[in-house]
Amino acid sequence: MTLSHSMLAMEIVAPGGPDVLKPCSVPVPMPAHGQIVIRVAYAGVNRPDALQRAGAYAPPPDASPLPGLECSGTVVECGPGVTRWKIGDKVCALLPGGGYAEYAVTHEAHALPVPEGLSLREAACLPETCFTVWSNLVMRGKLKAGQKLLVHGGTSGIGTTAIQIAKALGARVFATAGSEEKCQVCKDLGVEQAWNYRDRDWSHLMAQAGGADVILDMVGGAYIQRNIKALANDGRLVQIAFLQGAKAEVNFAEVMTRRLTITGSTLRPQSEAAKAEIAAQVEAQVWPMIARGALRVVMDSEYPLPDAPQAHWRIEAPGHIGKIVLKVEE
Q1: 230-257 pLDDT, tens per residue?
Q2: How far apart are CA 78 and CA 85, in angstroms?
Q3: Fold for domain 6-126+299-327?
């Protein structure tokens, strides 16, 4: 099909707060070998977008400078070598960037079919969170049935997804959150215990429960040593972000004597092949969880694309629960 030459997008005009997101007109991306162009219906809003906007998370050199790491929509163009998709297919996709726009480009192996029964709005919430959770909890953290998982930020998009995937795997799940209301949301998703980190010593309470086999943490800072205390022997701390800083004083004697593992990853800088392998595992293992109702999207709010600054205010505020999306296609 013939695409227009320009499109509406939201660009970051300078590092700063949400108000630096401004509408602009930019060229529609062209697909390279193995890539597809998606007419974006919805774009997910994630904390890495806010970090990029603030100047703390630069996109890879070959990625779009526009924010947006996941979307749903319709395939409108296929580059040379594309074999899986055809024009008109409905997909949701992990993006290297560029989701805050009418069109986005990604590798064909990083797109997945919209799960049956889900809307495009819901499907836009899946790629970034499911890829992140599966690759860190299972591929790196080796979480298995019967093991105990502690999820920090249990009502974030990552947190609600991690709780449900872990439950579907047969793990015992514990969580922290910032209010009693949020703790109740975690309990409704199936956690055994949810602790308000503002007034409960979750590290001590987790240790009392036998310690966590795996901890999924996005806080960092002072949490790192507390996480070590909360791990069971042979436990694994999986770090995916540092809301309180990437540096901490750690007692490595305890790591050695209790045979602990400290690991973690970021998704965006990984190779196309690595992301393709994650995508294949997510489709094989997580998509069936959605089909049988074991995993559902927890949605916070929706904003029109030009209201991306408001969406960023929302994701950085303490009250949001679940995923935030931008509606792009009218």
Answers
A1: 999 999 999 999 989 999 999 999 999 9
A2: 8
A3: Quinone Oxidoreductase; Chain A, domain 1 (3.90.180)
Inter-residue contact 111 to 93 (CB < 8 Å): yes
Tell me whether the CATH fold assigned to 6-126+299-327 matches the one assigned to 130-264: no
Torsion of CA 250, 255, 260, 262, to 10 degrees: 30
> pTM to 2 decimals?
0.96
- For the segment 4-27, what is each residue's pLDDT rounded down to a tens digit? 789 999 999 999 999 999 999 999
Q: What is the 3-state secondary structure (H, E, C) of 200-230?
A: CCHHHHHHHCCCEEEEEECCCCCHHHHHHHH
The domain segmentation of the chain, as residue ranges, is 6-126+299-327, 130-264
Q: Whole-angstrom Cα distance, residue 223 to residue 239?
A: 11
Q: Which pLDDT band, with edges at 50, 70 and 90, does 330 fall under?
A: low
Residue 284 CB coordination number (10 Å): 9
Q: In one letter, which amino acid is 310?
A: Q
Residues 155, 311, 11, 69, CA torsion sign: positive
Q: How confident is the model at residue 277 (pLDDT cuts 50, 70, 90)?
A: very high
- pLDDT tens digits along 150-169: 999 999 999 999 999 999 99
DSSP string, 9-29: EEEE-SSSSGGGEEEEEEEPP
CATH of the structural domain 130-264, one choice from 3.40.50.720, 1.10.1040.10, 3.90.1570.10, 3.40.50.1100: 3.40.50.720
pLDDT at residue number 165: 98
pLDDT of residue 186: 98
What 58-62 contacts at long range (C-beta under 8 Å, 24+ apart), as own/partner pairs, is: 59/96, 59/97, 59/268, 60/96, 60/97, 60/268, 60/269, 62/96
